[in-house]
Structure formats: structure tokens, C-alpha cells
Design a protein that fits this description.
- This protein has 390 residues and is mainly α.
- It folds into three domains: 171 residues, Serine Threonine Protein Phosphatase 5, Tetratricopeptide repeat; 71 residues, no CATH class; 38 residues.
- 74% of the residues lie in helices and 2% in strands.
- A hairpin with a 5-residue loop joins strand 1 and strand 2.
- Bound molecules: zinc ion.
- Zinc ion binds next to loops.
Length: 390
């Protein structure tokens, strides 16, 4: 850091001086040059004494703000921010904003930069005010709105996030409705904990009207209906997921099986699972059908079905289930031990594997995040498909 300061600060100061010097009269210039070389040496001394804060003050003072040096100030502040030296970035940008002769465009740009400084420092209330000021001035609309959205998401202020997302959608002509549906889901979950189930249900309705393909809405609705023993309503909600986004079908299969069983509708369950398997072949559906077969027709029939399905679409989870079934049938001790060893090995293999992966940044884990913890995008973490997944 110190080495870079030795270059950045004097260079910025000198370049600012260079741009402005042609405007000075010769006599004044000579006088100023003398002061400059004195200040410059003082600044360098502070740097060499490892007192960079004092050096910054000296060099900023040297960079007299005029129309020629505004860009230099902005760039210097941004450079500090990018290097993580947010306090200095704030000082440079504040110094710029304090100058009375800035034109409107320069002032707005400086406000945006200062907002970014405070945002980076985590001082969200100040950043928020600055971004609003920038947007009210009619400049940097998309940029300002994106920062505000980020702030409201981090503060979990979902009402504000919805308003800003709607504005951002119209400013950038992008569809923000899938994200807005998540905000309503967040409000619904909060309301269910702190207000009432009715209020939560109202938010879910809004989520679904914002985005009728909101898988999260269907999952929440299904889970809450099932908790209230409204199994038919729960089944209707869970079933929507197959058409909303079939990649998430594995999330609803165990819930659907439980609801159908509660209602004693095993035949309907098998019919639904078979229909699902035709449309969306996934191992979760195969395993649910295998278990159903084992229950109604015995292990032999289940093994035959699973073996046939694994030949079509092999997966590690399917193989593990097949070994479990075989283990249950095996009577000979030595064969049983071999199957058990194989079963344990596959179990260990599966334990180390993630279940979900972000299609945007590749982040993976065992928990379904609707908002990727790594790239901060919504709707991008999905169950892993293929041999090691679904
Ligand atoms: Zn991601």
C-alpha cells in the first residue's frame, strides 16, 4: 500500500497542477510553484515517514479543485475505494462536493462516488441518502437504483426493495418480477412468524401474481397448507412446481408422497409419479416410485424397476438405493458384508457431494438458497443434475 501511495498521490497532484497551471499568470505561477514544491516535498516527507494520512491531506490541498481537476479528484477517490481505503476515498470526494463552483453534472457524479464510498464502508443510511439525491437529480438512475436495491436487500427492507425493483425494471426495461416475487415471499415468511397466517397467505398471493412461475411460492404454500392438514390444497400447490421449473421437482416429491399418503390416495400418487417420470425423468421420482412398488408389490419388483431405470439414467443415489434393497434381501452373511461395505463407501461419497449449485457463479452446497450467497443473484441455485445429482 505504502509503495503505491508514493506513486499515486504525487502523480495525481502533479497532473492536477499541470492541467490548471496554464490558466495562471506567470508571476502568480512562479509564486505558486514555490509553494507547490514546498508542499510537494512536505507531502513526500510524510509518505517517507509512513504518515500517509497527512500526505493525503497535503496532496489534496495541492489539487486545487477547478473544472480541469474534478476528474482527477474523482479518479483519486475511486482508486482509494477500490484499494479498500474507504476513509480516504470519502475525504477526497467530500472535499470535492464542498466546492461551490461545481456544475450540476460534476456534483451529481461526486455524490454518486461518495455514495459508493459509504456503501463500501457499510454506512448504509448515508449511502442511501446520497443515492436518492443522485436519482432525484435525474442522473445515474440504473446505477443508483441498483445500489439502493442492494442496500434494502441487505437490510431486509422488502417493502422498499419492491418499490425500487419496480422502478429499476422500468428504467432498464428488464423483468424484475421473479425477484419481486422473492421479496413478497420474504414478507410472507416474516408475516407468518410475526403477524398471522392470513397475512402471510396474502403476501404469497402477491408473489404468485408478480411471477406465476415462482417455485418458492408454491413450496411455501404447499408446506403451510400441509401443516394446517389441508392436504388437497397442499398437493395443488406442490404440483405446480413441475410446470413452473422442473429442475426443482426433487424439492416437492417427498412432500407430495406424504400428502397423498395422508389422504390414503396411493393409487393417485403412483399415477402422478408415473406421469411426472414421463415428463421430467429424475432420480427423486424413480426412488419414490421404487418405494411405492416395494410397499405394495415387494422388494423383488422394486429392484427390477429400479435396475431398469438406472440403465436408462444412472445416478449414484439410485445405485445406493439399489444396494440398500439388495442388502435387505441378502441372507448369506459374506454377501451381506460385501454389500454393506459398498453401501458405506457410496454413503461416504454422497456425504461429500453438494446437492445444489448456482448456475450463475458455480457456488455449491447442501442447502437451497433462493439468493446465492456468493454472486447475490436470485433464482440461480438449483438442484444438481446428472450422475452425482438428480
Ligand atoms: Zn451464484
Amino acid at each position: 500500500m505504502f509503495d503505491a501511495l508514493l506513486i499515486i498521490l504525487p502523480a495525481a497532484a502533479i497532473s492536477g497542477w499541470y492541467y490548471s497551471k496554464t490558466k495562471r499568470r506567470h508571476r502568480r505561477q512562479r509564486k505558486q510553484s514555490a509553494r507547490w514544491s514546498k508542499d510537494y516535498l512536505a507531502g513526500l516527507n510524510y509518505l517517507l515517514d509512513e504518515q500517509p494520512d497527512k500526505a493525503v491531506d497535503v496532496f489534496i490541498k495541492m489539487l486545487e479543485v477547478d473544472s480541469e481537476t474534478v476528474e482527477t479528484h474523482l479518479a483519486l477517490g475511486n482508486l482509494f475505494r477500490k484499494r479498500g481505503e474507504v476513509d480516504r476515498a470519502i475525504r477526497v470526494h467530500q472535499n470535492l462536493i464542498a466546492r461551490p463552483h461545481l456544475d450540476k453534472a460534476e456534483r451529481t457524479q461526486a455524490l454518486l462516488c461518495l455514495g459508493q464510498d459509504y456503501f463500501k464502508a457499510g454506512v448504509f443510511d448515508r449511502a442511501e441518502r446520497l443515492f436518492h439525491e443522485v436519482i432525484d437529480a435525474g442522473a445515474y438512475l440504473a446505477e443508483g437504483l441498483r445500489y439502493l436495491l442492494d442496500i434494502y436487500e441487505q437490510e431486509k427492507d422488502w417493502d422498499q426493495a419492491i418499490q425500487i425493483a419496480q422502478k429499476l425494471g422500468s428504467v432498464t426495461n428488464t423483468n424484475m418480477n421473479p425477484v419481486i416475487a422473492h421479496y413478497y415471499c420474504e414478507l410472507a415468511e416474516e408475516a407468518r412468524l410475526k403477524v398471522s397466517s392470513e397475512q402471510a397467505a396474502r403476501y404469497l398471493k402477491r408473489a404468485l401474481s408478480a411471477d406465476r412461475n415462482s417455485v418458492r411460492t408454491s413450496l411455501l404454500q404447499g408446506e403451510w397448507e400441509a401443516e394446517s392438514q389441508q392436504y388437497k390444497a397442499a398437493i395443488r400447490a406442490f404440483k405446480r412446481v413441475k410446470d413452473q421449473d422442473p429442475d426443482y421437482i426433487a424439492e416437492v416429491i417427498p412432500h407430495l408422497v406424504a400428502c397423498y399418503e395422508k389422504l390414503g390416495l396411493e393409487t393417485e400418487l403412483i399415477a402422478f409419479l408415473r406421469q411426472c417420470l414421463d415428463e421430467v425423468p429424475r432420480i427423486s421420482i424413480v426412488l419414490a416410485l421404487t418405494e411405492s412398488l416395494r410397499h405394495w408389490r415387494g422388494a423383488e419388483a422394486a429392484i427390477a424397476f429400479l435396475t431398469e431405470q438406472l440403465q436408462l439414467r444412472p445416478t449414484v443415489r439410485g445405485l445406493k438405493h439399489l444396494i440398500d434393497l439388495q442388502l435387505g434381501l441378502e441372507e448369506e452373511i459374506s454377501s451381506k458384508e460385501k454389500f454393506q461395505l459398498l453401501d458405506d463407501l457410496i454413503q461416504q461419497l454422497l456425504q461429500d457431494k453438494p446437492i445444489y449449485r448456482c448456475v450463475h457463479c458455480g457456488f455449491s452446497g447442501k442447502v437451497l438458497h433462493w439468493h446465492c450467497p456468493s454472486c447475490k443473484q436470485w433464482n440461480v441455485v438449483k438442484p444438481i443434475q446428472g450422475l452425482e445429482g438428480e
